[in-house]
Design goal:
mainly alpha; 3 helices
Length: 79
């Protein structure tokens, strides 16, 4: 019910994968886990019931999360 670290882990584990669903980190439901999903996660981090609209205003830590998540994903892709 809350967008959090488990969602970031799912996204990182499946980054670049295709034929995935929401539970695998495809938060925009385009069939690919990518940067758009990381952005969606960062925009809604900490929200409860994020899929229904409304939600809360992202905290300043969202930018930190986006930076750390992006750096981790870039590092993972180089291996």
């Amino acid at each position: 019910g809350m967008v959090g670290i488990a969602d970031l882990v799912a996204l990182a584990e499946h980054y670049g994968d295709t034929d995935v669903d929401w539970m695998d980190g495809d938060f925009n439901l385009d069939g690919v886990v990518g940067i758009a999903d990381l952005v969606a996660l960062a925009e809604h981090y900490g929200d409860t019931d994020a899929g229904v609209g409304g939600g809360t205003v992202p905290e300043p830590m969202t930018l930190v999360l986006l930076g750390v998540g992006g750096a981790a994903l870039l590092r993972r892709r180089r291996r």
